[in-house]
Design a protein that fits this description.
Structural class: alpha/beta
Protein name: Caffeoyl-CoA O-methyltransferase
Strand content: 15-25%
CATH class: Alpha Beta
Shape: globular
GO molecular function: O-methyltransferase activity; S-adenosylmethionine-dependent methyltransferase activity
InterPro entries: Cation-dep_OMT, SAM-dependent_MTases_sf, SAM_O-MeTrfase
GO biological process, one term: methylation
Number of domains: 1
Radius of gyration: 16 Å
Helix content: 25-40%
Number of helices: 7
Keywords: Methyltransferase, S-adenosyl-L-methionine, Transferase
CATH architecture: 3-Layer(aba) Sandwich
Distance between the termini: 40 Å
């Protein structure tokens, strides 16, 4: 059943196809090289992102960690209603190729721009461009955890006041839990932010830039 009656058939079918693939990978029922695994957000997280984007009426979104495009498609489904656009960053060339194919299947390719390369390098360049100052009203961070604070610090000046930043994997995998708790505590020390940790999916930090 579609979560929204208005969801395009192409988006619905592509999301279903990717959910099946993700389930097979997580259950180890298919043999996939570690670097090619989807490592996708959960369906529940996709629904959460879609709802937050709708509540925010977001138009300009930034995503760190495209993978094969599952989360991007969930977000594009909502942001298209505002004639918005997603800029998404991915380092793995194979995943970039797969994401582009999935965007075509879902018929959302015009709403998504992929920047291929190292996220820190790309974000550093973007942060120097005046156009991106307080430009994004929604951000999803779903990339390597080692650089999570560096990503956030580069992103924050590019987020508009009232903008939302969602960070995935706050609770799972458990090996990152202590590291992500330190990240959450780091955010709570910033008086310009309000932040909470939700147990939806793999754990989502939902952060609002209040000033």
């Amino acid at each position: 059943m579609k979560p929204y009656k208005s969801m395009k058939e192409s988006i619905f079918n592509t999301l279903n196809e990717l959910e099946v693939q993700s389930t097979l990978e997580k259950s180890r029922m298919v043999d996939t090289l570690p670097e090619n695994r989807m490592l996708a957000i959960t369906k529940e997280t996709g629904e959460l992102l879609n709802m937050l984007l709708r509540l925010k009426n977001a138009k300009n979104m930034l995503e760190i960690g495209t993978s094969v495009g599952y989360s991007s498609i969930w977000c594009a489904e909502a942001i298209l209603e505002q004639a918005g656009k997603i800029i998404t960053i991915e380092q793995n060339p194979n995943k970039v190729k797969r994401a582009k194919e999935n965007f075509l299947k879902a018929e959302i390719q015009d709403a998504v721009e992929i920047k291929e390369g190292h996220a820190l390098d790309i974000l550093s360049k973007m942060s120097c461009i005046d156009e991106y100052k307080e430009y994004f009203d929604f951000v999803l961070i779903d990339a390597d955890k080692e650089n999570i604070i560096e990503y956030f610090d580069l992103i924050l000046p590019m987020v508009s006041v009232g903008g939302i930043i969602v960070t995935d994997n706050m609770l799972y995998p458990e090996k990152y839990r202590e590291h992500m708790k330190k990240f959450s505590d780091y955010l709570k020390e910033n008086p310009d932010l309000n932040t909470i940790t939700s147990n939806i999916g793999n754990g989502e930090e939902i952060t609002i830039k209040v000033r």
